[in-house]
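> example.struct
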């Protein structure tokens, strides 16, 4: 079973992301966080296979969360997909250079979401067991 951490300050957006992931048919459990700081706490207490991450959030932004997580050795292979309305090319480049696995622009296109998530080989993801 996969554990997916969905990080977005909008409860509605977290539900939308969850629905898109449900359509992929993976057997999974969801953990939610409303900002990057809370996401770090969740990551520290759960074994996570995938993070779906918004950019703009209070307390700790998605890009800052991404940079902090990528600086930790135990999470270097954790798939982190940005799911954000930040569509400027420089934002995409910054996220990918900072270690994002992929980048999905809101509003979410179901086919695009499916294509990007299907590239992730979950058989190779070994979450840090808590």
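> example.seq
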């Amino acid at each position: 079973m996969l554990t997916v951490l969905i990080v977005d300050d909008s409860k509605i957006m977290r539900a939308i992301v969850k629905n898109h992931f449900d359509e992929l048919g993976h057997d999974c459990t969801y953990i939610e966080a409303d900002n990057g700081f809370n996401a770090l706490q969740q990551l520290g207490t759960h074994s996570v296979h995938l993070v779906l991450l918004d950019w703009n959030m209070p307390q700790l932004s998605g890009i800052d969360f991404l940079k902090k997580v990528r600086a930790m050795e135990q999470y270097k292979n954790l798939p982190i997909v940005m799911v954000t309305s930040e569509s400027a090319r420089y934002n995409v480049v910054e996220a990918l250079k900072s270690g994002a696995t992929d980048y999905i622009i809101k509003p979410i296109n179901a086919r695009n979401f499916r294509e990007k998530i299907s590239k992730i080989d979950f058989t190779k993801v070994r979450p840090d067991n808590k």
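> remarks
Residues 11-22 form the longest helix (12 residues).
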